[in-house]
Design goal:
157 residues, Beta-Lactamase, 27% strand, alpha+beta, globular
Length: 157
């Protein structure tokens, strides 16, 4: 587990360096999704859904083509947005109302993006392995999300 924690700590350090002084939301979300997808093992989708007009709309991501719009409260992403809490789902087949954008996905971690209690969207990471994500992933990837939020200007989203 220590190697996993070290890897996730390094991932967050890489994110800080990657984002640097850049503040544009599109640039930062695109690079953050690419970093997640390319640095995390056993991940088949990583990206963002943005909250627009009472639904989640597909944002920058890496992986197979995805669902373009998700109603609040539907699936793992919509539930995380509605409840404003992280959803760690070890087996998506056991999640009532799971939306299968990629049939290969077996587990999922969705973190709401909140800025001053305002919902901006969610960060979504999928894996083809059941049980891929644990509390260590949750801790460091919630920190990852906080780094993205603190480093990004969402004024024009």
């Amino acid at each position: 587990m220590e190697n996993k924690e070290n890897g996730l700590l390094l991932l967050n350090q890489q994110l800080v360096a990657l984002l640097g002084a850049e503040r544009d939301w599109l640039v930062n979300l695109a690079n953050s999704a690419a970093l997640l997808f390319n640095q995390l093992p056993d991940v088949n989708w990583a990206g963002f859904y943005l909250y627009r007009e009472k639904e989640l709309v597909l944002g920058p991501f890496q992986g197979q083509p995805a669902c373009t719009r998700i109603p609040i409260g539907k699936g793992v992403c919509g539930s995380a947005a509605r409840d404003r809490i992280t959803y760690l789902v070890p087996d998506v087949d056991q999640f009532p109302g799971h939306i299968a954008c990629d049939q290969a996905s077996r587990s999922e971690l969705v973190i709401p993006m909140l800025l001053r209690d305002q919902l901006l969207g969610v960060m979504d990471i999928d894996s083809p392995l059941r049980g891929r994500f644990d509390q260590i992933d949750r801790k460091y990837l919630e920190e990852f999300t906080e780094i993205v939020l603190a480093s990004t200007d969402f004024t024009y989203v």
